[in-house]
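=== RUN LOG ===
request id: a7f3
mode: sequence -> structure
chains: 1
length: 456
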Amino acid sequence: MNPKRWEEILLRYINMKNKIRIGFVIFIVLSFAILLIYNQNVELKAVGPNLQSLIDQEIAKAIAQRTTIIIYIFIVTSVCMLYLAYESYRVIYSELADRMEMLDASINDLQTTYNSVEMFMIEIDPDLTIININNALSENLNKKKSSIIGKKLNAMLGFSDKAMEELLSGVDKTFVQRAKQRIEIENNGKIFEAFISPLNDAKDRIKKVLLMLNDVTNARAIERQMLQDNKMIAVGQLAAGVAHEIRNPLGIIRNYCYILKNSGEYDRDVIEKAIASIEKAVDKSSRIIDNLLDFSRISNNKREWTNLYKFIKSIVFLEQNVLSTKNVNVSIICDKELEIYTIPESLEIIMINLIINAVDAMASGGDMTIKCLNDEEILKIQLTDTGTGIAETLIGSIFNPFFTTKEKRDGSGLGLYIVYNETEKLGGKIEVESRLGMGTSFILTFPLMRSGENDK
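=== RESULT ===
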């Protein structure tokens, strides 16, 4: 019941009690007033004849009358008090009955809503005993609620040992930390998103938790496909530049092959120079192809140690032809020995899209700066360009899917949306600072993780 409603009922009860007290005081005052007036009348009568018998009769008569009045006043007062008390409790009972009826209706509405949710919902006590479930879980398990409630969680869900261990760990954290938990679990080819929330009693003690399981297998598949499609669009944009970059080493190889054919057997200096140039050209082509293949493959969400400087440099190298064509100068400010434990594919997607976005914003050329800062717990990557900037009214929309200020043929509107999602996947956040005509800065902030730590 609403606390304010309880307060209203309590105030009514207090007001009724005050009325009872006021009525009682009034009756007492009236009783004493009547007794005093009657006492004066008796004294006047007693002053009459000087005979003892008459005096005794008057006194006895006065006492009898006074007693009658007192009894009358007492009876009337008692009746009035009982009536007022009856009215008070009747009002309270009526209000409570109405409130209870409304409370029952609210409980029924809540249970109906609870049962209509397609997400699996389970209430669990500290012993991992199931207290309540919704219809979605009952139908999924093909069992009646009565056969599920009261059983242990790990005995009813049928998850694999690894998936159940992750789930129970999240439930334990919720009881201990008194805070919500969100984890993603893979079980028998399906992906479940688990939300675990504490349920407190009136004394703010955690008596149980609410576990909500949402099957996001199809959603994750769609996201992965959309991500792959966006990567393929980027690969298509890179194809021309990559072809140009590979054609140059091939030309070098062809020229030196001709020199080798026409060199004398003992012209070792020419032969060694030709071989070194051919090997260098082959290595360059191999790096280009490796970078392109690494970028095009589907992400496996696996974390590994990565040298951040070399990682960013390889991405810039992959984009070198586009950067040169657009007259964009890139500066990388980063500790060359900085190693981070991350998902390389996700970070690659983020950097590629931000670099392409910055290049598009500098149609007439400009400067791009990629700065990495590390304070042992937080990694900050800031990419700044000297492009056209973003209007303040548009900054709140740039991460929305399919939002773009480019011509439809030049952009899909998914680049920054994917950047935002991949940043969240890594447990980070992204901020934007921009001024029209002066450029834009994208600031990425990530918690530095160590090997063996789970994603948050």
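=== NOTES ===
The chain has four domains: 3-115, 117-215, 216-298, 300-456.
The two ends are 37 Å apart (CA to CA).
=== END ===
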